[in-house]
Amino acid sequence: MAQRGKQITEDEFSAIKKMAREVTTRYGGPPDDERKRVLRGIADRQGQPAFRTALLDAYDTHCAITDCDAENALEAAHLDPYVNAASNHPSNGLLLRSDIHTLFDLKLLAINPSTLKVVLANRLLKTSYADLQDQPVSLPQAPNTSPIKTH
């Protein structure tokens, strides 16, 4: 263990710099890159609170797939990716429990457009999510809020 204030040799310093470069290469850029990514993510989601509020109202604060009614666990999922304010129309969204939203975005969970039932990726069929296979999706009754297409 290094002592506090101990002088290190140039070779030791070079070895530390080399390890730092390897860590940076393996795990991504320096810390300021992470901040840029966070700021970019915030900018990408402008209008998200209003979109979520519209979906909470349209879906009566229930997940379209699991029927979860814990508002803090519900997220607004875009069917088509966000590109501008028009992307935040309720017909371009589903209200999903956060873990379901993640699976949806990763394309491990989809909705069959013909049956409006859940389709799981094979790798989820032997997990605790298996019960969702062929689960009907609940859609809002209001015609201007119901998704116009599926993911």
Please supply descriptive tags for the structure shown above.
two-stranded antiparallel sheet, alpha+beta, 4 strands, 151 residues, 2 domains, elongated
Low-confidence stretches: 38-44
Task: Count up the domains.
Answer: 2
Largest sheet: 2 strands, antiparallel
The whole-number mean of residue pLDDT values reads 80
Distance linking N and C termini: 54 Å
By secondary-structure content and strand pairing, the structural class works out as: alpha+beta
- The total count of helices amounts to 4
In short:
The protein is an alpha+beta fold.
Question: What does this molecule look like?
Answer:
By secondary structure, the protein is α+β, with helices and mostly antiparallel strands. The protein has two domains: 10-42; 49-132, no CATH class. It is 34% helix and 12% strand. It contains four helices and four strands. The chain has helices spanning 10-27, 31-44, 48-58, 98-105; strands spanning 74-78, 93-97, 109-112, 117-120. The chain has a two-stranded antiparallel sheet. Strands 3-4 form a two-stranded antiparallel ribbon. The longest helix has 18 residues, at 10-27. The chain is elongated. The protein starts with 9 loop residues before the first helix and ends in a 31-residue tail after the last strand. The model is unreliable at 38-44 (pLDDT under 50).
Can you lay out the helices and strands and say which pair or pack?
Blueprint: H1 10-27, H2 31-44, H3 48-58, E1 74-78, E2 93-97, H4 98-105, E3 109-112, E4 117-120
Antiparallel strand pairs: 1-2, 3-4
